[in-house]
Amino acid sequence: MNSRAAAIAVVLASAPCGITLAAEGVVTVGAGAEYSSGKYGGTEKTQILYLPVTAKYETGPWAFKAVVPYIRVTGPGNVVGAGADRVTLPGGAAARRTESGLGDVVASVFYNLFDERQTSFGVDVGAKVKLGTADEAKGLGTGENDYAVQADSYVPLGALTAFGTLGYRWYGDPPGVDLKDVFYGAIGASYRVSGETSVGLAYDLRPRITTAGARISEATAFVSQRLSREWRAQFYSVVGFSDGSPDFGLGAALNYRF
Questions:
Q1: Is there a contact between 48 and 81 (Cβ–Cβ < 8 Å)?
Q2: Does residue 84 surpass a pLDDT of 90?
Q3: pLDDT higher than 80, residue 21
Q4: What pLDDT is recorded for position 20?
Q5: 119 membership: H or E segment, kind and range
Q6: DSSP H/E element including 165
Q7: Would residue 158 be called left, alpha or beta, if left means φ above 0 and alpha means ψ between -120 and 50 degrees?
Q8: Torsion over CA: 238, 242, 245, 246 (sign)
Q9: What does DSSP assign to residue 95?
């Protein structure tokens, strides 16, 4: 449930290769890899490898998406999960460990409320659910379900597209922990260098979700490259500005659309 993925999705949505196909029904499948490292307010680094497999179906104004990740976490046991579903649990650092396995599956549905081709700006509204499929005993997740509602907006300005995200997330509380339900958001812009290449920058912000925790504050720079009508690749880097974010991260994804 992150707006980093939404930022890159805006680039895909504004790409000319798929505009006329969405009304007929479009399927996109993909795979990615992300490595991140940070201390998250502690004294030891946590290194996370996040390998998501995605599937998306678009028909008319509707978009349905599922993300099934494999994750590997090396670090203190109180840093659990990966990506936007990572949580630093209170109570001090637990023993360091390395664990891997299925992460939390995320499903979402979005509706295109305003089409930028007709109204000069676009708005998508939707809902997400993070299923507690990751093994909480290994520290791969909280073991609880989370729910969110979200709105994504974007304004094409020639080759430039400005975008923003605003959402609200309800966290499931693991035993003995009270996670706060919070608003989250992002702003950014992408620039179409050519018909095949777009670049962009996004800033994500989320308040702290535990009393002793830290907010998420991070920037993502990305490149989206169309390889053919069906294939598209994305590359991105992340830098964090708070204890709630990684010190840095690198990621890539490859998508096939048919």
A1: no
A2: no
A3: no
A4: 38
A5: helix 116-119
A6: strand 160-170
A7: left
A8: positive
A9: -
Task: Specify the DSSP class assigned to residue 6.
Answer: H
What fold, for 3-244?
Porin (2.40.160)
- Confidence grade of residue 237 (pLDDT, cut at 50, 70, 90): very high
Buried b / exposed e along 202-228 (16+ C-beta atoms within 10 A): bebbbebbbeebbbbbbbbebbbebee
Percent residues over pLDDT 90 in the chain: 71
> What are the sequence ranges of the domains in the chain?
3-244
CB 109 within 8 A of CB 63: yes
> Which pair of tokens denotes residue 46?
């946590």
Please give the single-letter amino acid code of residue 139: G
Q: Write out the two tokens for 105.
A: 């599956």
pLDDT for 19 equals: 38
Cβ contacts of 252 within 8 Å, gap of 6 or more:
32, 33, 34, 233, 234, 235, 236
Mean pLDDT of 39-58: 93
Query: In this predicted structure, what is the pLDDT of residue 15?
Result: 46
